[in-house]
Amino acid sequence: MKTPEHNKTTMELKESDFQKISRLVHEQCGINLHDGKKELVKARLSKRLREGNFASFSDYYRHVTTDEGQDELVMMIDSLSTNLTYFFREFGHFKTLRSVLPEMAAARNGDRKGARLQIWSAACSSGEEPYSLAITLREVLGNKPVPVSILATDISTRVLDTAIRGIYPRERMKDVSDQILKTYFRYGSGKWTGFYQVKKEIRDMVRFLRFNLMDLPPADFASDVIFCRNVMIYFDKPTQEMLVNRLYRILNKDGYCFVGHSESLTGLAHPFNYVEPSVYRK
Known about the structure:
Number of domains: 2
Helix content: 40-55%
Shape: globular
Structural class: alpha/beta
Number of helices: 10
Radius of gyration: 21 Å
CATH topology of the largest domain: Rossmann fold
């Protein structure tokens, strides 16, 4: 174990330790930490080493691969996950969703009357995406009698805590219209001045859950719409292909799958039908 003096220095991340950590992260959550990510790993994990009183990255790796270190393994994945997002990110996707929701709602009131409209935000980060989905549903469907369920999952417990609270600083709201802000958010006062909280009626539409995309989704994840955006860019091709085919299996017939604009299913073996760039249908 390290001595207090180590808090004042930056520990060396040896290539052998970086490779071990990279393999572990890939096995656990599919993230591909190539050689260009070495400094990022060093920077983000150094704090964990200092707080955990570890003398080296080797000691830290040994700990997170033991039964006693499983909680710290979760914290390590949290630290290495990239969670940058904002409300209505890639707005074209929400425009497409608005155009197909009436058809989906009609199906619930026709042949599938009473069936629940299920949407899965598969890498929800700090909650902006699923809340954007909930607002879109409310805007398009209003109070129509269509049961709706939004499942929001992420591997990071840290961002899920933020998502559940639904409180965001003013700068995260810069692309949200005044009408949306007034209708679906509460502006803070006192110590919360400069913050907005998603109103309870919208928060109640979303169920948050920690889930690793490398695991098999349970049957109750079956969805009509899946948003799995800006996460596959961190995976290698075999992992991307595995994930895309899992998403296909969990998607209901005629359902839609949205991926990030910087992502593509080109070159991957999959059964999806192409709709438009970054939008696919089963």
